[in-house]
Fold this sequence. Notes:
Elements: H1 2-5, E1 11-14, E2 16-19, E3 36-41, H2 50-59, E4 66-67, E5 71-72, E6 74-77, H3 86-102
Parallel strand pairs: 1-6
Antiparallel strand pairs: 2-3, 4-5
Amino acid sequence: MLNYAGADLSHVLLADTHNHTLPCRYIMNPPGVNATIHQHIGLGEGEVDFDALFQALREMDFANRTFKVGGEAIITTSLFGYPEKMSVQAVETRERIERELLGR
């Protein structure tokens, strides 16, 4: 998907997911639907390969892009599934993004 977007990719929203077909985590309608569940869980708690994602973004030089309209590239995350974890997960996520894409 990242390669398809190519040079037009300007905004990435990070979110981890679960494959509902593994150990019956969810009841889905219709039964047997091939889907992933968007959970707003912390990076690395689900099944997304974030090492591969960040590697692809580095190869695209995503962090250094600028656009005529909209300015700099944007990467965001949305963590609200577990408010009791927010004070730790938000910091860990920001630090990982900075480490992976900005070399901090």
